[in-house]
Amino acid sequence: PQALTKMNDEVASLVKKYQFGGIILFAENVKTTKQTVQLTDDYQKASPKIPLMLSIDQEGGIVTRLGEGTNFPGNMALGAA
């Protein structure tokens, strides 16, 4: 596993060759909004035939990877509401 924050040629060629269905980002992949947008754009460019399903480990509450934007409560808080 790589803590990829920026696309490189090796990963781009693997995405294109094996036609991944999707990518999940974790905390080590997300540094800033601008960097994350660039990374996800680069993933999509590496998969020109079929768009990738992109996801992030963003459960809300304690598990929050994206520092900007709207923060939603975690599952425990939603269940208690």
TrEMBL record:
Reaction(s) catalysed by this chain's protein: Hydrolysis of terminal non-reducing N-acetyl-D-hexosamine residues in N-acetyl-beta-D-hexosaminides
Major enzyme class: hydrolase
Residue ranges occupied by any Glycoside hydrolase family 3 N-terminal domain in the UniProt entry: 6-80
Keywords, in A-Z order: Glycosidase, Hydrolase
The EC number(s) this enzyme carries: 3.2.1.52
Annotated GO biological process: carbohydrate metabolic process; peptidoglycan turnover
Membrane-spanning ranges: none
Name of a matching Pfam family: Glyco_hydro_3
GO molecular function terms listed in the Swiss-Prot or TrEMBL record: beta-N-acetylhexosaminidase activity
Record keyword Kinase present: no
Domain of life: Bacteria
PANTHER family: BETA-HEXOSAMINIDASE (PTHR30480:SF13), BETA-HEXOSAMINIDASE-RELATED (PTHR30480)
Protein family per UniProt: Belongs to the glycosyl hydrolase 3 family.
Protein name: beta-N-acetylhexosaminidase
